Amino acid sequence: MEIFTANSLEQAITSLFGENLRIVSKRPVHGGDINESYCLSLSDGSAVFMKCNSIRNLSFFEAEAKGLDALRKTEAIGVPKALALGTDKAQRISFLLMEYLERAAKLTAYWEMFGRELAAMHRADYTEFAETEQGRPFGFTHDNYIGASPQINTTKENWITFFRECRLLPQIKMAERYLDSKMRKQFTKLMDHLDSYLVEPEFPSLIHGDLWSGNAVCGPDGKAWILDPAVYVGHYEAELAMTELFGGNPDSFYGAYNEVTPIDSGYHDRRDLYNLYHMLNHLNLFGATYLGSVQRILNRYV
Question: Which pTM does this prediction carry?
């Protein structure tokens, strides 16, 4: 899907909803710490969700729109629709407009349905999003971002190579200023023997890529909707690991997921290694507070 690109916020609104509509109010919506977010109330009583950043960061929203579109194409789980993006020189912003999700009460089986729908998404056709004809299924058609950090999605023939070259190594390079000689040697050893710790998946999966608890919300249907993706084709275990990084979901979520795709018994031995990527990214984005977490994971494996 080619999303409409506008030269101003006003142009985006009128092109989407008609010449007679205008923004009558703007209410801040709390969420992530990278972009500003607002609910825009329109003159016909409807609402639209807007994320904005500095005018030079339009690429954030171009990548996000592509990711949302990819996830929506699986038709497996709730994903908000990206409506338009662009820049507004008068306001000195770049922006992304999305459908506004009215929040409903969670269905009784919310977590079970979330687990099954995520598993179904991981089993959906991924071939549109990687170079499958060349036998390089792991990666994505475009690079994107993990938080504010660039995320390289160059396609690779196998998962372990992709995770080494496109996930861990770029973050390790960015983190060099934090690493002492011991950690440098540990990382070298880990990279040289990564295939001793990770396994190739039974099947590639299109994954959200940044599915911590803040990126899943209860939508208008009472079910889970997923937001703010860092999409790529990879191993579903990396997705499950991220859901456990900051507390985890209830056991019912993982039990329901396991009904659709049995979770390998060795996953728990690999979980922290997948999350090393995210801990390194937090180290690079937010500083030395996360160095201890990176060191603890390294000490477990090396």
Answer: 0.95
